[in-house]
Amino acid sequence: MLRPILALSLCSLMAVPAAAQMSDVTCEDSARLAQKLTTVLGAERQGSGLRDPDTMVEVWVTEHNRDWVIVQSFANGTSCIVAMGAHWAGPGKTPA
Question: Which residues form the signal peptide (predicted)?
Answer without folding.
Answer: 1-20
